[in-house]
Amino acid sequence: MINKFIHICLIALLALNFSSCYNDFDDPAPAKVWTDADFGEEQIMSIKEFKQLFYNKYGNGAASLKQYLEITEDYVIKGKVISSDQAGNVYKSVYIYDGEEAIELKLMVSNYVYYQMGQTLYVKTKGLAIGCYRYMLSVGLPPTAEDIEKGYANRNIETQMDLNAHVLEGAEGELTNDDFITVNAGNYQTVLNDNKLGCLIRFEGLSYKAGELGSNKYPMYLEATYPNNSTQATYLSKYYEEEGLTPTYAYSYNNDHYYGSALFTYVYGSNNGGNATSAAPGNYIVRVSGYANFALQPLPVDDGGQTKGNITGIYTKYSSKDGRYPAYQLLINKFSDIEF
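and the corresponding structure tokens:
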């Protein structure tokens, strides 16, 4: 009789435990919101200080391209999310800004589902690597030998285990005027420098230009081909009008999606494309993915620079593989950020 009583008690206890677990699963505790107080006093460093670790070793010239610096100290950087991949134009990246400088986090797809614009993120950088690709610094996992062979200096943080270890969610918020840097024809030369790469910039009073910049002609798109069954793409410059197409921000036809490039400028009458070591100031390439939901939106009409418009985008830089002829590109979060 006693054994039967003990047996009944054990069953009741197990049922109670199961019920408790079920209730926890059904009504989970809220996710932790990280704050500065969760880290040591000397642990958090500014994005500027963090990027300087790389520059101290490699500089910021052509010799820094394809280099990486693995972080062995327990540094933490933080910043507001200033990018979104919801429109399909930002690919596997989140840009964060700490009020002074910004940097790219190499992550996964559909980041907007997890990291909202205006939300603060903390990044535990020990075990990650700062990499330089065509003059742009980013934070990701250390590169593999295959990554290095392809010219990439780090790789994306994609597994949930790695994300949980390195990318910690802080408070949600909204972008304010303090999270944008505004430039115009009168101040862009003094406000903008390479310290602002990765930042969200509002360009006021730009003109659209169909024509040449240095040795390149715009608008254009890059058609990817795979000659001789190669696994590596070869890109061909194509021009909309020559192909009988309406000039649009990118190419997206018949399941082919190619990047498009268009020129916007503060110096409409100049054809100075810069030289091998510097990009021409005042000229900006808006580069759009063929997968963007605004890929087939028509470009503005070139009216000789009379019509002015505004563009808000992530300020980036891109060069040839060996670092020659860098140009400044604008990464657009959503079509409404182009006001023409």
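(Above: one complete record from the training split.) Residues 180-339 form one domain.
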